[in-house]
Amino acid sequence: MTPPLVLGIAGGTGSGKTTVAHRIREALLPDVAYVDHDSYYKDQSHLSREDRLKVNYDHPDALDNELLADHVRALKDGFAIDKPNYDFATHARQPESTRVEPAPVVVVEGILTLALANLRSLYDIKIFVDTAADIRLMRRIRRDLEQRGRTFAEVRQQYYGTVRPMHLAFVEPSKRFADIIIPEGGENHIAIDLVVGRIRHFLRERQEWQASQDLTC
After folding, report:
1. What is the mean pLDDT of residues 17-45?
2. Which of 23, 137, 164, 204 is least buried, going by the fewest C-beta atoms within 10 A?
């Protein structure tokens, strides 16, 4: 069996990395398995709401990175996974999981996907989405207010307390590991088209190899 092509897509909060990942996925369906790092946040249901808000969710230790690595390895080996679901409003894992079937292409997306060596070693292509800090901040504020049920005071406190320091400590330095840097996220259609074209070339090569193997059997 030919192993899948694994993409790691990283970038700061609000950079547009999720949009890039989704556009790549949509262009290649049904040949893509999508795994978001955000789903692997550790469950904080044992803490009070006040204590949950004190957790540094922008540090790598807030995520179950070993489980994510195990899941990516399983997909590479041709096995389905049960991806956890995480509720950002309550900072707790939901009881149900999401089944992800193996596919010729695996996309792993999240702010810290290039920051950790055990994850980086699993990727064939490493992508960093690079967007100006002011644009990222405005997107972050809007998302947290509209989608995650947070107050402006909570968003501000988290941004200055953990988001910005952890971006400087972990996310921004991980850009040096990228094979491809995409400025301006999902609006950079040329860069996305180039990545999609490279993946389609891989899929054609994979199909041709499989056909040659079938002929020799």
Report:
1. 95
2. 204
